[in-house]
């Protein structure tokens, strides 16, 4: 049995479905909600490039380095974005949660917290991970704040880590939650979702 197996994860707020080409139109609509491809510090595909992005993520699934999901709101049934387990390390039981984006209308709705709770629960309780990592652009303050609010600790900064599509260099901030921190993080995320 391989480390990452496609699985559907659900709670009262969202359902994370294994990514497929059936989600193409909904993902295009979600990206149009806020024209997310215009955010220079992140990488959200334009609608005309969405099919290629689905192909890319499914190729990484086949290579066992990524498990991609489509995020769907349960109250409306609307597709609001994508998220993944990525940079999977089966030998050391580690994954990164990343390549996440959500439609602008879903921001501050609790959907991101609900998605992360599902992913963290599966990582620590089913995959038996010893650590879950998060990475984001130094300039993406919204993402950095959201990651810190999850209970992740900042591990450090990888300077000049990647070249962005516009040619600029990205400093990457690395966060993680380790296995011993998970019970407290889980309790806090559940408390926040019940509010």
Radius of gyration: 16 Å
From the spread of the alpha carbons, the general shape counts as globular
Enumerate the spans where pLDDT stays under 50 for 5 or more consecutive residues.
Answer: none
Percent of residues in helices comes to 25-40%
- The CATH superfamily appears as Gcn5-related N-acetyltransferase (GNAT)
Summarize the biggest pleated sheet.
8 strands, mixed
Which CATH first-tier class would you pick? Alpha Beta
H and E string: EEHHEEEHEHEEH
Could you tell me the number of beta strands? 8
- Give me the oligomer status: single chain
CATH topology (level 3) name: Aminopeptidase
When the domains are counted, the total is 1
What descriptors fit this protein?
Aminopeptidase; 8 strands; globular; alpha+beta; 195 residues; 31% helix
What would a concise description of this structure say?
The protein has 195 residues and is α+β, with helices and mostly antiparallel strands. The protein has one domain (9-194): Aminopeptidase. 31% of the residues lie in helices and 32% in strands.
Task: Describe this protein's structure.
It comes from Rhodococcus sovatensis. One of its GO terms (molecular function) is transferase activity. Pfam families: Acetyltransf_3. This is GNAT family protein. Keywords: Transferase. The structure is a single chain. The protein has helices at residues 24-32, 50-62, 111-126, 141-150, 182-194; strands at residues 9-10, 14-18, 66-73, 79-89, 94-102, 131-137, 153-163, 169-178. It is of the alpha+beta class and 195 residues long. It has one domain (9-194): 3-Layer(aba) Sandwich (Aminopeptidase), CATH 3.40.630. A hairpin with a 4-residue loop joins strand 4 (79-89) and strand 5. The chain is globular, with a radius of gyration of 16 Å. The model has no long low-confidence stretch (mean pLDDT 92).
